[in-house]
């Protein structure tokens, strides 16, 4: 059985014809759609917000995996739910009341993930790992698509897997940033089961075929 989930990041989609890209994803092997929300404060880039999320929701039944790179995400939990998010991933960094933020997301009826920037140690998740549906290991500094994979993220995935196993937790591991057909197999091998890919999918000649290739790369 193939348990790998591919979550294409629409940050690299064609915003002037987003509907066409969402329809392509609807017919692809991608189970999830990864949605990067950036506020220009938490990260040095601004992407999009509620109207775009709502527009995507209108055209798909896929699982909408929303990665929040914003300050004060606790203020917007219900708005993201109402706009169609199935899961909210919030960063460890900058969210000092993470326990209550996690509870708020769950109580709102969504899955919850916590993201770690490249320089943040996996051990910070030790007290809360049992509360999470997913851990997002950032393999680039958040803010932009198309960056180069940071190699030491591989070891962080291994450490996350060890932490999950040692605590008998159920969180899945997602990796985001610089994921390509060349490194996907290793990432799955060390413990990632959800691969985010933006430029590797949307800048490829046949995005749908690339999604299928990513999903099956560990069988090759
Ligand atoms: C970066 C975002 C990523 C981005 C990945 O801050 O979180 O989801 O879209 O893009 P690629 O796959 O091109 O590195
Ligand atoms: Zn992301």
Describe the structure.
By secondary structure, the protein is α/β, with parallel strands linked by helices. It has one domain: Aldolase class I (TIM Barrel, Alpha-Beta Barrel), CATH 3.20.20.70. Helix content is 32%, strand content 20%. It has an eight-stranded parallel sheet. Helix 5 links the parallel strand 6 and strand 7. The protein is globular and about 45 Å long. The protein starts with a strand and ends with a helix. It binds D-xylitol-5-phosphate and zinc ion (ZN). The site of D-xylitol-5-phosphate has 22 residues, from strand 2, strand 8 and helix 7.
CATH class: Alpha Beta
Oligomer: single chain
The number of distinct helices, counting runs of at least 4 residues, comes to 8
Extended strand count: 8
Number of domains: 1
Strand content: 15-25%
End-to-end separation:
14 Å
CATH topology type: TIM Barrel
Mean pLDDT: 97
Helix content: 25-40%
Largest sheet: 8 strands, parallel
Using the CA coordinates, give the radius of gyration.
16 Å
What structural class should be given to the helix and strand makeup?
A: alpha/beta
What's the architecture, going by CATH?
Answer: Alpha-Beta Barrel
Bound ligands, named by name, code or SMILES: D-xylitol-5-phosphate, zinc ion
**CATH superfamily, called what?**
Aldolase class I
- Which stretches are low in confidence, meaning pLDDT under 50 for 5 or more residues running? none
Strand order of the largest sheet: 1-8-7-6-5-4-3-2
What are the secondary-structure elements, in order, as H or E? EHEHEHEHEEHEHEHH
Shape: globular
